[in-house]
Structures are given as structure tokens and as C-alpha cells.
């Protein structure tokens, strides 16, 4: 059925696209998570990413044709968000895919049919582009579709050769553009985004790119397409930009209402801020829904940055309090029909936003105080200009927008050094670029190249600790070799393995690969195992002999290490269950580490776990261990597992069929790791520590089994040693230590009193040396190694005795530590001298800072060698201000 080119909602466009391709034999598949399986990218950036193993021949597709609506995140041009008509961090990509089924001719024909007959776009408004060397695509468009040659543009690699990342599937592409102004004639410039918008990209996926940039033909010719949902909505809804479509504009209106403004009557700066809020809120809602949490690294840092940009732009449009949770409700309501998990995860989304926003608002408040100090200092300078470095510190450390710094500076009659700011920004970007940790793609690239000739690794380690295997791949320094001699570090891929590969927080197994039983055959020590795509990569060292591709070897894991790992992994399951029972049933896992020595479990919690709760958790887990609960391991459809109440592991990807580890009545989780067959095998469980690791995230570290004995032996040795030192029994130690602490406190108080008396005695000697400046008296002096409190007492006493006076005292209480105190009378304040601001400026000379009230303030510094210079500066400023 042909749809006339009238208004279609975003939801209608999405469903129309999926239905069109479903009617043509495509299986509708759900959107993949924003956390990709592909290790070469941090976030899902394209619809094809979930199909990369299929394009590489590593996985067999469920259907030769598929169609999806994929949520994506890209932040490479984040500064353009809100400033152009169609830049976004979050967007939806509608796609149709062929896995070795149809190719260019059919993909082009369907794309044209969908665009013109279904969405009703006039052919006269459409222009296409092809890769400059793709004569075949050019001919199809011209001869079979009937597009005039002058409306088919040939373009280079940057525009019309697509790749998903540094390595992997790629190929030439053809794009369809909508022309908003065909009346301007045939002078076509597709870079003119005021006239043209690219809305449909057809990628002819036929190559694989390795880490060296080499292209090799894929086993099959594939189709990967992407139609931008937001862009098609702009076209069909006839609005000037993507932000004013029904996919985003309700979020913008929500923010505008909170700010008490009207979008359409606002100036361009305000509109940009509202667009940024609308775009970023969509992004963070879906990121948190996919279990990404704010942090200072990786995708967690991207999430934190986006939330902070929302808060900053909220401040720019006049929103003072917390508001992100209210705006997020609009985004959740808009998305829940297509992506139900945003509503299911509503509580977590709002909790994460509230925590991050509250934390950042405190940071902004500190920035505002710093800006006030900078403005006061700048007003005293000749050029009346805030330095670029100060402006950048406000921006980078405190998240203070440059625009807001400029606005406040302008109100105070001063300017900002924009060139200096840009220079500082460039320096920071260079440092970040140099320090950035990128994923080593060498092994991945080599495996991608070999993927079409070898099969994935079969894991047999659930049932077997040793197995026969064939060597399929040997990598040395990332390069595929046929053999490796003794003394060589290698990465080895086997056709099957008992070694568990690092996943779900559980470390990889250690062990050996060997051949021959006479003690002089091949021996490869395996130190770690990681999974790349469908291959288990054994990282090891050839101890003796020569390892060759095709060798039949015995792969044997370290049994003792495996048993300890299994005990710790099962203990993490019991720990999560106990936390939910005792602390809060909404607790969810935020990460874990399971090794042979210990376990670490991160979880979301708005508060610390009390000592009493920790003891209850430990007791409950040990009772489950003593009760000897047997494990029930089963594979089942994921829908059934969720229906039974199985808990998912954080950050893990699940297929249609999942592995469920069930200790009936105790714990049931989806998990691919290795576990004990009975809780009794754990032996004993002991919590070592509980602490916060990030806002809203706590961490418990614990040990189990043999490691508990090791832990207790160390503590027992410490207790016995303390008992010998204090001549006390273990149970008497707390009281003995408390008594010693009380004695120490009393001694410290007495010492402080003596120091204070000494400081007063020294300060009294300064009274006769007070310098007179008209009606004022000033004292600027150093009092040796007097501590800060005694120095403060002395300064106050001197000022009170002198009356109308300004007193500045300093000391060096410890090496590399400077203390400064200023005490000013009210009359001094009336002359424009404030103790807080005055002493803060002096402290900077000694590499420090400080402040306080107008009449009394203190500061500290780190460079004692500059103290005399600082005191001379203080005296000069007092003479200048009071003379």
C-alpha cells in the first residue's frame, strides 16, 4: 500500500520500515544493547555491529535476511549536537541486512521502492551517491531505477566507503539524499546540508579489513543498510530540524517548561542548550537502561560527560535545581513502546541521574566560589582579563561553562582570554590523546583474517579438566606462524579446550599444553585465556619443544586453581542473594572479579552496608554453605529463565538459550562461569572489606575456602604479636589500646596548650615592634614552627591588644608546610581589605591557598622557601592599602 507523503509519527516510520522488509522475507530482530560484544568499539555505533561475526563467517545466521531498529551512540562530533540540524549522540538506525543472499541490485530496488512508493517521497527530490569506482551501482541506479546520470554523484572513500571500526567488515556504499530545494536547479553540492539530507545508506559489505589496513574479500557478499529514523521523521513531518520531530521535541518542551521559557520564542543560544538537553537525555536514559554506569573510564566516562553536559546546559537556560529526572521521564515515555527495558529500569535510571546530578551540582558550586575569587583578583590587574588557564580550570575541573564565565566576567566589566582558553584546551586534548588506552587489535585482526578458514573453539571445560585438542592457530607478536620454538611467547587457538576464558568477572584458567609422556616432549605454560569472537586464545610461553599448527596436544588446566576459582565464583552468587535479602532487594551487580585468591563484588547501593548487616550476610552465606545445597545447571530459553526469576550478570551478553546456575531456594543466575556442584565445597566464607568505589556503588571483597584459612592465619599472627607487645590476652587488647589512645589524646592536648602559651609569649614580644601607618598599626612576622591553631590564637590576641590593626603571622610547623593567618580590625575592613581574600592571595606565593572571614582567615602553602617573599608582599600590600 502506498502511503501519501503526509505526517507520519516516529513510531509509524519505524514500524512501516520493519513491516516492509518483513513482507520481503526479513526476520525482525530486536535492537542489540548499547554495550557491544565487539571489543574494538566502546558503544554500539551502527546497526550492523551485532551481525559482524556473521559477516566474518564466524557465526551462522538464524535467517539469510534480517531487519532491525537499532539504538546507537556516537560522540565523535559531540560539539555539533544542537548546533546543526541533525547531529546527535543517540539515534535510531533502521536497517535491512542480507547475509550472502541478495546484493546490490535488490537492495537498491527495495530502497527506492520504500522511499518513493511507501514513504511517498517524490523522485524529483531524491539524489544518490555511489563510491567513485563502483560502476555497477552507478549503472543500476541509472539504467534500472531510471535516475538521471547528473543526479548520481561519484564520491571518495571518506563519504562512500563504509567500515564499522579500525578492523572488520567493510565495503563501498550508496546513499540516498533528500533535496529540500529542487527548484535551485542541477548545481548539486551534497555538502550543502541546508539543501540536502542523507537519509538512507546502502553498504555493499564485501571486504574484511585487518589491523594493517589490508582488504580481503569476504566469503559472502552481504548487504548492510541504515536509514536514519530521526532524519526521515524530519522529512515527513516537515520540520526544520531533527530536534523538532515527535521523537525529541517533547523532551525539549519538558526542559523548557522547567526553565519557564518557550522554545520557539527563544534566541539561538537557548535553543541550542534545549536541543543538547533533548539529545543527551535520550542517550543517557538508554545507556543506563543497558546497565552502563557513570565512572571516570570508558563508556562510564561517556555517560558521566553527557549527564554533566545536560546539567551545564540546564544552568545556561536558568535552571538552578535538580531537573534531569523530570526530563528523563519524558524520554522514558517516548521510548518505552519500542524499548520496554527503559520502563523496567526506570528506578535505576532515575537513581543514577539523581546521584550524578547532585554530585556535579556540588562541583559547580565550588566552581562558582573559585570564579568569584578569580574575578576579584582580575579586577585588581591592569589588563582586567581572566587568564585562559583560569577559565580552562573552571571548565575542565569544575565543569563550569565558558559561556557562563564570559557572562559573569562581562557583568563585572572584565574579559576572558579566549585564545589562552583554546590553547589550554588543545594541550589537554593532546595529553588525553597521548594517554588514551586503545584496544590492541593485533590479535583480533589476525583472527578476523583466519576466521573463514577455521572454526570457533569448542569449550569442554564444564565437564573436563583435561582434553585432547588440535592446534589451529599460533600467533607470535600478533602474526600468524606455523611453529614456535622453546623460549617464545605465544597465543594459541585450539579446536577445543577445557580452559575457561576470562568472562563475567571470572579470570581465565592457567595450566599447560603438552605432548608426550616421557618428560621431554612439548610443554607450553598457559598463563591466561581470553575470548576473541568465537575463539579461545591461550596466552602462554613455550617451555620446551616446538609447537606446530596441526599438532595434537593435551590441554590440561591447573585443578587446584580451578577449584578455588569455582568456590569464589559460587560465593559471589550467594553474596548477591544475601545482599538482596538483608540490605535491599533492589540491589544489582555493577561488576565483579573472581580469581583463585579472592573475590570482589561491586553493587549499586545508595548507602554503605552497616557492620551489623555485613555480619548477618556473612552468617547467612556460611549457613547456606553448611546446608550443602546442590547445584542444578540447565540450559533454557532466556524468556523462561527470566520467568523463573534468574538474575542476569552485569555486562554479559545472552543468546536465545542461556545457562542457568540454580541453588534452589538460595540463588539462581544466568552465568557461563564455572561453579562448585554443592555449596559445601566452598568450605567457609569471610568478608574482608566493604567500601564505596563511586557515587552509588559499593564494593565487597571476600575470600572463601582455603583462602579464609590463609586470611585468618595472618590476622592470628598480628593478634599474637600485639599480645606479646602489650603483655595482654587477645580479649584484653581493645581496652589496652583504648587506654593508650586516651593517654595520647591527653598528651596532645597538653602539648597544644604549651605550644599556644609559647606562641602567645612570642607574639607579646612583637607588640613593641608594631609599625604605625597613620591611625593603623600593622605586624607582619614569622613565629618559627608554631602550629596553625596556636598561630591563629596569637594573631587574634595581637589584633585585639593593638586595636585598630592588621596582623599577619606565619610559621613552618612541618618541613614543606607553611601556615599563614591574618587578623584585621573592622576599620581595616572599611579600607577595602578583607582578611580572607588577602591571605588567599599571599598563600599563592607559597604554592597554597586559603580564605576565611573578613576579620580572621588562615591559609596554607607547600613552598617554605617562598615564605619571606610572601611576608614582604603582605607588608607592601598593607602599607599600600592603609597608608
Protein architecture, described:
The protein is α+β, with helices and mostly antiparallel strands. 40% of the residues lie in helices and 25% in strands. The protein is built from 25 helices and 35 strands. Strands 1, 2, 3, 4, 5, 6, 7, 8 and 9 form a 9-stranded mixed sheet that branches.
Please outline what is shown here.
The chain contains 25 helices and 35 strands. By secondary structure, it is of the alpha+beta class.
Topology readout:
Layout: H1 10-22, E1 27-28, H2 52-55, E2 65-73, E3 90-98, H3 104-118, E4 126-131, H4 135-145, E5 152-155, H5 157-160, E6 161-163, E7 168-179, E8 196-209, E9 215-228, H6 229-237, H7 249-259, H8 268-289, H9 298-316, H10 324-335, H11 341-344, H12 346-379, E10 385-386, H13 388-398, H14 402-411, E11 415-416, H15 418-435, H16 442-450, E12 458-459, E13 466-476, E14 479-481, E15 483-485, E16 489-494, E17 496-497, E18 511-514, E19 523-532, E20 535-544, E21 546-548, E22 552-557, H17 559-582, E23 589-594, E24 599-604, H18 611-626, E25 632-637, H19 638-643, E26 657-663, E27 667-670, E28 685-694, E29 697-704, H20 706-726, H21 733-764, E30 771-773, E31 776-782, H22 788-802, E32 805-814, E33 817-824, H23 826-830, H24 835-845, E34 849-852, E35 856-861, H25 867-882
Parallel strand pairs: 1-2, 4-5, 10-11, 12-17, 31-32
Antiparallel strand pairs: 2-3, 3-9, 4-7, 6-7, 7-8, 8-9, 13-14, 13-16, 13-22, 15-21, 16-20, 18-19, 18-22, 19-20, 23-24, 24-29, 25-26, 26-27, 28-29, 30-31, 32-33, 33-35, 34-35
Helix pairs in contact: 3-4, 7-8, 7-10, 8-9, 8-10, 8-12, 9-12, 10-12, 12-13, 13-15, 17-18, 21-22, 24-25
